[in-house]
Amino acid sequence: MDWNILRIRWSEDGFSEFGTAFISFALVLFFGYLLGDRIVPKLSDALLRNGIQRPHPLYESGRRIVRLSFFLLASFIFLKLLKLSERTGETVFLGFRILSIFLLTFSCVRLFSAVFEAYSEKTEGLISSASIISNVIRITMFAVGLLLILQSLGISVAPILGALGVGGLAVALGLQPTLSNLFSGLSILLERQLKKGDYIRLQGDGLEGYVEDITWRTTAIRRFNNSTIVVPNSIMSSSVFTNFDIPTKEFSLQIEAGVAYQSDLERTEKIAVEVGRETLKRLYPVHEIGEVSFSYQKFSENSVDFKVTLPSFEYTDQFAIKHEFIKLLHARFRTEGIEFRLSPQGVSPKKGP
């Protein structure tokens, strides 16, 4: 150890140099902390066209990355003003560069996750609601950060990329089912067929439920009994299914029945429409919804058949609407002396108007 160097470093000039560097560090860091609270709301307003509240993850992530950027800038200025020796400076700045890449990579991943969540909340978009997109971009960002660290250490990344390209072909051949599921999941999202929260029904087995998530390998569907169906993306993309939430969630439920020939048809129609409106008012006390429609269908052997069409906000509301309507209509017809007759059609739900 060279004691002369230490003695010079801790001399009066050394203390002055350290003081200047520390004051510069503190000023830049303080400015960054103040600026973070002003930049983030403006950026969020420009990107999302709407402000965000402070507890929101996007606000916290944006403020953290702004402050981290100023912290790294302040640290760089601090090290520069210390006027380190050439050998010491190379080592210190190499470590600083690697640490900066590491911290910024993690901060950018967190910021992306928060932007992803905010975009999904604002737009209810199809792509933004699935974790497969988020996971793919996170892995890409971590890979880029790792390559930058290796490049900073003097390790050439060109041979690594070449080896990955050759090895990637061998891996792709061994992981064909996995890659098939990955690209099938991306295809489902890009073609705007599904999104998280949609209610779907698979053809054949009659399996139906809410789409919980679309991951890199599978699509998870939650049924009414809270069990989960896990379908590989490759099978999902080639299956025939009905999406009850596209193009809209609004749904029309058709209930068919029949009354005796001696019934007053005008009176029957009026009562059925009134009961339909009462049913919707009970289930949707606040929201306005479409009108109830009534039409006679045909003369059956023992009855005059009719159909009542009831609107609903989404597919799963049909069960409560059906239950309430049948109960009220049966009670009202009994009171009015209108006799039901068996209809061969029964109850049939139908998507659309």
From TrEMBL:
It is found in: Cell membrane. Residues 135-176 form the Mechanosensitive ion channel transmembrane helices 2/3 domain. It comes from the Bacteria. GO terms for cellular component: plasma membrane. The keyword Cell cycle does not apply. Pfam families: MS_channel_1st, MS_channel_2nd. Keywords: Cell membrane, Membrane, Transmembrane, Transmembrane helix. GO terms for molecular function: mechanosensitive monoatomic ion channel activity. InterPro entries: LSM_dom_sf (IPR010920), MS_channel_1st (IPR049142), MscS_beta-dom_sf (IPR023408), MscS_channel_2nd (IPR006685), MscS_channel_C_sf (IPR011066), MscS_channel_TM-2 (IPR011014). The chain crosses the membrane at residues 15-35, 65-82, 94-112, 132-150, 157-175. Residues 178-244 form the Mechanosensitive ion channel MscS domain. Its main location: membrane. It is a multi-pass membrane protein. Belongs to the MscS (TC 1.A.23) family. This is Mechanosensitive ion channel family protein. It comes from Leptospira ellisii.
